[in-house]
Amino acid sequence: MSQFKNMNLALLAKLDTLNQAPAIMTKKDGQYRNVTYTALKDIAFSIANGLVKVGLKHRDRVAIMSATRAEWVYADLGSLLAGAIISAVYPTTLEDETAYIINDLEARYVFAENQTQVTKLRLMQSEVPTVERVYVFDTDGVELDEWIRPLAELIELGSDWAKNEDSLRAISNSLNGSDVLTIIYTSGTTGSPKGVVLSHNNYLITIENLFIHSPRAFLNVNRNLSFLPLAHALERIGGYYLLLYAGKTIAYAEGFDSIIANIAEVKPEFIAGVPRVYEKMYARVRQNLQSASWLKKQIFYWALGVGKQSASYKLAQKPLPTWLLVKHQLASKLVYKAIKDKFGGKLQFMVSGGAPLNPKIAEFFHHLDLLIIEGWGATEGTAPYTVNRPEEYRFGSVGRAIPGVDIRLASDGELEVKGPNLFSEYYKNPEATNEAFTNDGYYKTGDIGTIDAAGWVTITDRKKQLIITAGGKNVAPAAIQKLLVSGGLIDAAHIIGDNKKFISALVTLDPDALVKFAEEQGIKDKSIASLTEHKKVVDKVSAEVDAANAKLPSYMTVKQFRILPHSFTIETGELTPTLKIKTKVVNQKYAALIDSMYEKEPVDEFL
Fold this sequence. Notes:
The protein is α/β, with parallel strands linked by helices. Helices cover 40% and strands 21% of the residues.
């Protein structure tokens, strides 16, 4: 049981006491500026007071349509203090799905980031009749009217909150732990989104159990850089609620493309990302190394080797022997420090979640004295079920269960979970809710994995994404994808083979690596579409596929592949907002290309 009655009171405990300590860092006019806890409190109460004045009632629903930024937090905190139930829509969500979520939610008020989101709302205005008003963060280019108003106006309306402070605090005091805090709609790779209902207790108890699980990770760091979508469950808890609950500082990146530059400016002590972020970082280090001088390459590989020698001691939590400690200190001066400085110089660890991370990437950074710890969870579990700890970790494993969470293995290999972190229901969807749980109350995660005798969990694939070939073989596509993207040119891979005689793949290429390869090969036309068809590029990709196949059993090897002339993107509907490939969309969009790979099927490849 939490020490607080609800999440509002937990957050208010810090807003009321930390005063001039920095709560948020946001970039304005070319430099990062602090928003203190006192200033954040003033903004949140002003929004709450403004919402109450315009008619918001306890348990009314509010939606936020915005990328990750400080105003997202302002809108969320203000809505919480007004007693609302908050949801969020990814800013990249298409119009029809946005309308579906807002209508399912029956939202009365919407916070929109900018002109792009306002345009989307105007197009669907007649389809979202419950929305009484939209408040806009950035009004540049926005035509205001009675329905579309600036956030600044709402803050000004509620700026006299001190006069109504008692009544506003009464709202928070009236909430119980079982009350709904948020409804998060799962993006999913197939089907319509489902609203995951999460309570105040789900967040409070999960956060407090994370503190118990690893104080070093969640209490002894002071600043992060936030860049994942706040509409996603991982960032909502790990990059927002947990940090304010602990009285820490949240710095916001300017955008996904500015992460590396912002890390150097902000100097965070930890960051959280999805595997795609670390894959990009890994690819960038490899690209930079290719253009380095012979001497720098030799020094780098020597330092990498020292890191590899040191890894076993670190994993066993043992001190380095003197001979290795001296080498490690020298490697740090020559290589590790320079790399760490690119990440601000204070980074203690990085967290990966949302999908399995290739262990080779985690080990590579570990050998450079940078730690990535992996966790596992889902929206339905308020995000985390398990997480490695900086003081105890295993690569390839997602860690052990956080306190209070019980994990078991079903007969078909599916992992099932029970604990205080679990959601109560899918909003307005009792059928889906019943299907999600076993008869004895365990949530069926849909993840296939293993649990060893010490409780370490390893995820091998998604149950629904397992491919069953025509020969009856069960194939885990994630294992193939990890090998394919480790080659250098291949950026992403979509694996095909369900009811087919063999495995095939659609691959996209890393634009930066592709252009660099073209320069090295003396190819003049460097347009991406042209390069993806060039014989030297196709031969290089074929070699990377062969290298991956050499590490796979015969029935899992990629027999055919096609290179797409562009990357999978969120905007084209091929990726979820958390950068997972939408299987159904890709299969439909590229059906003809996929069929071309099976026109002349190899005979009995799996026998």
